[in-house]
Predict the structure.
Amino acid sequence: MDASSPLPEGFSELDIFALGSCLLVEGLLGFFMNAVTVIAFLKIRDLRTPSNFLVFSLALADMGISTNATVAAFSSFLRYWPYGSEGCQTHGFHGFLTALSSIHFIAAIAWDRYHQYSTRAKLQWSSAITIATFIWVFTAFWAAMPLIGWGEYDYEPLRTCCTLDLSKGDRNYVTYLIPMAICNMGIQVLIVYFSYQSIDKKFKKMGQQRFNCSTPLKTLLFCWSPYGILAFYAAVENVNVLSPKLRMIAPIVAKTSPTFNVFVYALGNENYRGGIWQLLTGEKTESPASTETKFK
């Protein structure tokens, strides 16, 4: 670390090193695991289906989150943000874009699986590409708003990474937060919940419980609800009264999402898991008898 750089308020040398190490592990692990998911889709012909395209798109978004975490880790070891105010705005936009896109693709996968299991309708390429395009454009709109004054990007308490500024809690922040959260988190949580509830009912009716339908929702809430709770707390109370270390827990937990998603949506999918195995070993596994998806 640069000894000439002052420590961020509320953090010790050990805190900085520990948080930077967490970000580095999350960033590198999430990036490489999702990179394998992306490469497998591109290299293994059997994986290139419309449904798997949504998993591929999720992996791209999660690679973005992991890259964002790795940049934050590097800055943490320096003890300061080295890229200036424009770099901070770019980092905030990139982080928000990829995070919102990841949440949307999780909901899109849930919607697709509902149709696969409950209505036996298969996703078409035209629909998959339209969904992916809409998600990237829609989330880019919401991520761009703080760049033009609706909401604001600023440094997180560690001051080595940037995200939505929670410190003001003024009208500008509240009017941005509420519609953004409804459109990019609330609706998605409901889609995931009702989709897997419907699948679960279908399985019970058939007398076949093929996988744990609660896993995707539990994973989504575990990774993103701390950040959501902190953001809404900032809308009603002065978030600065909370310990800076406490406020850093939410972004640290959120950046575990890329790693969890690989296990739930790529390695947890029998077909996709077989494709990854073929990519890594050159050995082709037996094709599954059905499109059944197994969650751990």
Remarks:
- Residues 288-296 have pLDDT under 50 and may be disordered.
